[in-house]
Structures are given as C-alpha cells and as structure tokens.
Design goal:
With 258 residues, the chain is α/β, with parallel strands linked by helices. The protein has one domain: Vaccinia Virus protein VP39 (Rossmann fold), CATH 3.40.50.150. Helices cover 43% and strands 23% of the residues. It contains ten helices and seven strands. Helix 6 crosses helix 8. It is globular and about 55 Å long. The protein starts with 10 loop residues before the first helix and ends with a strand.
Length: 258
C-alpha cells in the first residue's frame, strides 16, 4: 500500500517543512518522540526513514559513545546531509547509514539485535507494511520498543479547510498517511505485537506572512498546482486582514513492546 506524493523523497521539501515547524511552531516533536521511546545511554536504535536526521542526530547524542544508530532512508541526498551533520558534531562513529527501501528491511535488519526501532512519518510509504512490522518484531531484543508516528485525522485541519474553500470542495474522508495511522497501522501492529499504546502530539504553527505560509504549503503533499495562484491571492487577502495564520500539526504515535 505505497503512499506516493510529489514531496515524499524530496530533500529540499523536507528541509523546508522542518524549518517551518521549528520557526513558526511552539513545541518540539523530538522531546515527545524520545520520551515515548524511553531512550537511555548505551542502546542500539534503528531509524527507519530517517530523512536528513531530525531524530537521528539528537538520538545519537542521547545514546552516547556506547550506543549506536542505524539510519535508513531511500534518499541518498538526505543521507548525505545527515552524514555531514554527524561528521561536524563528531558523531560519525555512532551513526551507520544505509540507502535502501523500507520493504528491503529483511536484507539489513538483524534478528534480536536492536533495543529500539523508530519510524517517524515513514512506515506508511511501505508497499507491504505488515511484512515490515513482522521484520521489526524479529529484529528487536526482548522488551525492545517500536514507536512510529504520522499525521492524525485532524492534522493541519485549519490549513486544509482554507484550501478546501478555495477548491470549493468538502474533503473529509481519510486517505494516505492519515488512513494508515488512524486505522490500518493500528490493526497491523496489533496483529504482530498483540498490544499497543496510542499517543498524541500537537504543534501550533503561527505564520506571520503570506510568503511563510506559501512556503510551507508548497513543500508537502497538500500542495495543488492547479490552485496555486488562487491560494496566493487568498493568502494575501488573509494577511491584509490578519497578522497571523494559525494551523496545528497534529501527530498520532503508536508504541508497542516485544
């Protein structure tokens, strides 16, 4: 059930989204992720779909010199960015990188080896997520933790409503990553692990200009080229009458133990 989109593996788009979350947001998602992963020094972690290393780099600092991070991503460009960051911070010895697809996890994840597995905004890109989850279960040590997260059904609801008014549609059905996180992923992880816990995270974004909002909107898969000019016009009108545009990044996280 691959979820495709123009910006799924676009490194520049990913960097723009991360920058927007950090510049215009108020809450750090990493603190939430790491708390749920129960990170401690000396453990081994797999970061599936690591991107440019938003979680990889701080996790490698947390686990210390006796810990390790195995970071996998389909984009070599993203991994190059991550590699440079690790080198600049003196963390290269703790971070092993691999350019590969999630669906080839059986080729690189070793049985009963890892203390934690993280998949942040990536698991739903798999063609066969059930098989990937089974491989993750086998790769974890006893009592190892698997945590994955992605968009909840109300993610960026304000921005979606704004766009739907421009498009003159009522788009309330679940699809893509949202459908996976709200329904499919939960069912699959229960099938493999037996139990799970659900957690929620919110980061309110306050954009202060139409350029900032446009840059965010145009960097991920909500973007629609057919309404780009209308979106810009309506955004400018909004900022003529308001100082900010608020939308909330709403994330659903699922935690389970072997």
């Amino acid at each position: 059930m691959a979820i495709t989109g123009e910006f799924n593996t676009d490194t520049n788009a990913l960097k723009k989204r991360i920058h927007s979350h950090e510049q215009f947001g108020s809450t750090d998602i990493n603190s939430w992720i790491f708390q749920n992963m129960e990170l401690i020094k000396g453990i081994s972690i797999v970061d599936l779909g690591c991107g440019t290393g938003k979680q990889t780099i701080p996790m490698s600092e947390i686990v210390g010199k006796d810990g390790s991070i195995f970071a996998i991503d389909i984009s070599q460009e993203a991994l190059n960015t991550l590699s440079l960051q690790a080198e600049q911070r003196g963390l290269s010895s703790r971070v092993n990188l691999l350019c590969s697809e999630l669906d080839k996890a059986n080729d690189y994840l070793v049985e009963n080896t890892y203390d934690r597995v993280l998949s942040s905004f990536s698991l739903y890109y798999s063609q066969d997520p059930l098989e990937v989850i089974k491989i993750i279960w086998r790769s974890l040590k006893n009592n190892g933790i698997f945590f994955f997260c992605g968009p909840s059904k109300d993610n960026n609801a304000e921005l979606k409503t704004f766009q739907n008014k421009i498009k003159r549609i009522d788009d309330s059905h679940l699809s893509g990553g949202v459908l996976f996180m709200e329904q499919i992923g939960q069912s699959l992880v229960e099938e493999v692990f037996g139990t799970m816990e659900i957690f929620y995270f919110e980061n309110k974004l306050k954009f202060d200009s139409y350029e900032a909002l446009y840059n965010y909107w145009s960097s991920y898969n909500l973007y629609d080229k057919e309404i780009e000019n209308r979106f810009i016009t309506e955004t400018k009108i909004h900022f003529n009458n308001n100082s900010v545009f608020e939308t909330t990044k709403r994330v659903l996280g699922i935690k389970t133990k072997k």
